């Protein structure tokens, strides 16, 4: 990779979950197990606490689910469904891919085009130190055809779903745990999803540090910080229309982690009045914004 590109990846998934309250006999058999590995190009750790006879099966199920999601959406694996779509331009897609792209389309429209997964060619041009004019001409998620069973990209287009896939994984793993009898969990892949609660989370900025706190119960929250990673001379959140980020960090509460993930990405590029319109369109929870001077605002 050219020296011009400075990439650091700070995505971590930490899952802590407990089964419903157990009696004394079951509590005596309680066990906590931890698995560590890699997913979506990041370090991953999973921690589950439950009856000792069940926890390993539950942990195995969570790891399997995570691997299946990565096989769909990872941009780091040439064999992933996303990589195959980018290579071929048109493929029959899975139900999971269809679900994520439909949500991405909804956020794209609500954000007036500021959430745009077709930014990937621009990312590649910046990483490789190439001229970006041709890559910018390829941007336009409205040109992606999302059919009932297939997806077709416009010629030359490629997608990155990094701004939504980790949130989707968080939602899927939370749902899996619920099906397996857990009623208290906090799943974190940079985006948080709470089952039960309340969980108390800090709101932090890469430069200013922690500036606020929030309480999360049966909901989701995501934060995006353009300066947390750089690509070439630009921040990793690229403006699809050629602008620059307006906020250092934005934190959004929503019904799902996938929605919060996508919206927080777009909100880094929006003035406050535009954010308010999107919040109404998508029925979002509170939004916390940190500007480049380190000031915290709430919407």
From TrEMBL:
The keyword Kinase does not apply. It is an enzyme of class 2 (transferase). Keywords: FAD, Flavoprotein, Magnesium, Metal-binding, Signal, Transferase. It catalyses: L-threonyl-[protein] + FAD = FMN-L-threonyl-[protein] + AMP + H(+). GO terms for molecular function: metal ion binding; transferase activity. Residues 1-30 form the signal peptide. The keyword Metal-binding applies. SUPFAM superfamilies: ApbE-like (SSF143631). It comes from the Bacteria. Its EC number is 2.7.1.180. Its cofactor is Mg(2+). It holds the Pfam family ApbE. This is FAD:protein FMN transferase. It comes from Celeribacter baekdonensis B30.
């Amino acid at each position: 990779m050219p020296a011009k590109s400075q990439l650091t990846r700070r995505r971590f998934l930490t899952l802590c979950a407990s089964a419903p309250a157990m009696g004394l006999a079951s509590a005596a058999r309680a066990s906590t197990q931890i698995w560590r590995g890699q997913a979506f190009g990041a370090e991953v750790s999973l921690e589950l606490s439950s009856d000792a006879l069940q926890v390993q099966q539950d942990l195995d199920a969570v790891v399997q689910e995570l691997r299946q999601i990565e096989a769909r959406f990872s941009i780091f694996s040439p064999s992933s469904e996303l990589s195959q779509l980018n290579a071929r331009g048109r493929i029959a897609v899975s139900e999971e891919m269809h679900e994520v792209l439909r949500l991405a389309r909804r956020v794209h429209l609500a954000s007036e085009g500021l959430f745009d997964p077709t930014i990937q060619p621009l990312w590649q041009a910046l990483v490789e130190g190439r001229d970006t004019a041709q890559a910018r001409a390829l941007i336009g998620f409205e040109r992606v055809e999302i059919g009932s069973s297939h997806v077709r990209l416009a010629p030359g287009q490629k997608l990155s779903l990094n701004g939504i896939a980790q949130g989707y994984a968080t939602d899927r793993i939370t749902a899996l745990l619920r099906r397996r009898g857990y009623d208290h969990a906090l799943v974190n892949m940079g985006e948080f999803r709470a089952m039960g609660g309340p969980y108390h989370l800090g709101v932090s900025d890469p430069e200013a540090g922690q500036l606020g706190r929030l309480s999360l119960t049966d909901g989701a929250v995501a934060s995006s910080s353009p300066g947390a990673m750089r690509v070439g001379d630009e921040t990793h959140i690229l403006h699809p229309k050629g602008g620059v980020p307006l906020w250092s960090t934005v934190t959004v509460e929503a019904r799902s982690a996938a929605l919060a993930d996508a919206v927080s990405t777009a909100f880094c590029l929006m003035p406050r009045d535009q954010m308010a319109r999107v919040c109404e369109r998508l029925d979002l929870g509170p939004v916390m914004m940190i500007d480049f001077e380190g000031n915290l605002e709430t919407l």
